[in-house]
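Reopening this one. Same input as before:
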Amino acid sequence: MLCQTLHLLGQKLVRRRPLELRAGTESRLARCLSTLDLVALGVGSTLGAGVYILAGEVAREKAGPAIVVCFLLAALSSALSGLCYAEFGARVPCSGSAYLYSYVTVGQLCAFVTGWNLILSYVIGAASVARAWSSTFDHLTGNRISGALEESLSLRLPHPLAGYPDFLALGLVLLLTGVLVLGGRESALVTKVFTGLNLLVLGFIIASGFIKGDLHHWRLTERDYQSASEHNRTSSLGPLGSGGFIPFGFDGILRGAATCFYAFVGFDCIATTGEEARNPQRSIPLSIGLSLFICFLAYFGVSAALTLMVPYYEIQPDSPLPQAFLEIGWGPARYAVAVGTLCALSSSLLGSMFPMPRVIYAMAEDGLLFRGLARVHDRTRTPILATLASGVLAALMAFFFELTDLVDLMSIGTLLAYSLVAFSVLVLRYQPDQNETFTQNEKTEVEMIDSKPKVDGHALDSVPEVGTSKILQHVCNPSSTVPTLKSGQIVYRCALLLALLLTVLCLMLSLLSSHLSSGEPASIVVTGLLLVVILGITVITWRQPQNPTPLYFKVPALPVIPLMSIFVNVYLMMQMTAGTWIQYGVWMGIGFVIYFGYGIRHSLENKNDQQLPASSDQQLPASNSQTVDKNIPDARVA
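Same output, byte for byte:
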């Protein structure tokens, strides 16, 4: 009895949603967003205040003028995830982003974990950007706002609660929540205005850098470093680097690229617009690619201009661009930088708030969150309750919490979502179509009956012998040119094994990079063996036939690009501190209470299982495969 109960629970946890739209359902949201709207949303969400601050920090402390190479490597790494999101955007034109992609590939529990992580990322992202906007505006007023609040409303609460309530951040989040309630078209218009102003300011900064910059700052000599050391009263040149274009060496480039990677986080919000884009199969992949390219040009141009205007060791990390304009004698230009910073923060805040209600709406519509959150306003055709609930939550977080220590927690959710999307692309590309699956299943059953030995015309229940060579031939050199049930299962198992091995590899590399394990032969040998096994399984996956169904966009070089994306994301997750993982565990504990207390019993897939025909002999819930068991009654046997 216990085994049967556990079996039933396991089947519920891995139930999958059909890949296509449910029969008889149409999008309840307004299809009003053009490709330009999506590009503005992606650029605005990605190109936040980091472009004004991050370049100075990385250039001074980690990479020097080679920061332009750091942004190039970070852009290429982000493009790995962007390509995977682009294919799913072309394949599944629905709201939900990585949540939905996990649901149709891995199963219900994994989908809930993904959606719950996305909510965490968007809430913390919106609240932290709101506090950054408030801090920037307060700095322009000479810190008068924060000073008055600290004197009159000092809370003196333990960390991470803020020292005083931030009314400016609270009001800003509630104001933009009202904009989101008005409708997708109005939200897109506001985003385009802020993003356009931000790009104009960045264009001015880049042009200024190339006009007033000095190429000598990219090839500094020992004399420059000696004068800098005398000015800084230091006897060692170590903190300043070793000169030239790459003063901190290639290790500095890699460390800088890891930091710059997070500057490209945010483009995934485009994938939540599947039910509001006019032509999602085309516009989502195109806008993701354009957004990443525009953001790369902006980061590359600003970092190049900054390091050309001033030597990298004279950059002020807190306000690099205003200080750089003072150095070249263009002091008034710092006001343009301030305007651009506020516009960047505004568009980034709206970009963080826009996808949050879409994910909540998708989960509520599937029954994994409370059904009332899926309510859509009749006139504006926006998820009204999900928008209000997410906006109020983000506003309260910005009002009460100091969020600088929670940014790493946001990164875990984002990187996990990126990894699951890459895994989903890897698996789905090798699965057969639904109609092909039905034919293959019937053919397999007939072949199994015909292959049994017969006595007087009756088949005997004996297991046919299958040689090892035949199995290896099917795995390494499949005869079919289109995916079959067997090849799809092979890829699914290989993908799971590869994800596990890549996680172990990232752990080993983290240990090798530490001082405790550097130079240990055993660790190096184990890492080498892991690489060999991963390569072998990757070759097996590559040999399987891919689904030839045409899409507007497909990830090239499968299975290499999804695996590289998983590797990069998991490795970055391994760099998080133990405290961050403890906070993450608390958030996931809250989510599991909601899922096992409500979602697992109220999901639409659970209701579909309960509505199976009474004539069916099966005693267990339907299988999790949307392509087999929901279409083939004979496959559902007790």
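So the earlier flakiness isn't reproducible anymore. For the record, The chain has a mean pLDDT of 81.
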